[in-house]
DNA sequence: CTGCCTTTGAAGTAG
DNA sequence: CTACTTCAAAGGCAG
């Protein structure tokens, strides 16, 4: 009932999109998962979906962290004029208060704090690299669309793209029922702004830093994310908003609750243990040791 | 094979 | 309402 109301509101929104300016958005009914779905202040509405991806973007200017002029992440207050925000909505402060935190992983000199912000690789005004995430292409997975490519959010429970071949061995009714249930494709959460940024930039970081460990790469990406200008971040927030909209359109009945508890739950004790150095990290070292000053990183920037 | 590591953000849950 | 938890991606690695 509640959901129907929400989806009706959503459909209404889809059929009668705001002419321009999020300030004119009708306040959606208790939003299911499109809270704060408006772009940050000053970000123009994108007209065809993701059109801006093929438009020209100047390469982000290199950022000198040593001057500590890093753009802070978007915050609720930044968007207050634009959004009807509730707790936990977009633009919230990072989980870690002590940002920027010292890296747990030793970064190579080429990926050090000063160095890892790339010098412009293209002439000013050169096109910004296109997003490659298939879900960012409108139409993929949209029913009736010629491409008819399944939306990447749909994956078998195994996480693999291919479904497992049917097991013909004899099974009890309960077993096969449970198995059938388990084999139902999982609809994944739509990617948030940072995840989209990671997806786009991962390969670049891997190439630059000759790293493969995702944990280390993600640390670098987290720092780069914070170093992005608000406008650059806004681009990804907008993309994420479109992602959520598309996701809602494709899977009207889906809720993040559906996947809750499907992964092995990480106990709080374990998490604290790891953050206090009780567990090995992706480098095979231990956080309390790895968190020690990294030789080739100037402490002034940490 | 499973889960951890690591990041941010969205959304769920609990009090 | 607030604080906390889970899950999205990624790939190496330990158990």
Question: Can you walk through the features of this model?
Answer:
GO terms for molecular function: DNA-binding transcription factor activity, RNA polymerase II-specific; RNA polymerase II cis-regulatory region sequence-specific DNA binding. Belongs to the TCF/LEF family. This protein has a domain at 36-130 and 191-259 and 275-301: High mobility group box domain (DNA Binding (I), subunit A, Orthogonal Bundle), CATH 1.10.30.10. The protein has 302 residues and is an all-alpha fold. The radius of gyration is 22 Å and the shape is globular. It is built from eight helices and two strands. A two-stranded antiparallel ribbon has the order 1-2. The termini are far apart. The chain binds a DNA duplex (15 and 15 nucleotides) through residues 32-33, 35-36, 73, 86-92, 94-96, 104-105, 153, 188-195, 197-199, 202, 212-223, 225-226, 237, 240, 244, 255-257, 259-266, 268, 270-271, 274, 279-284, 287.
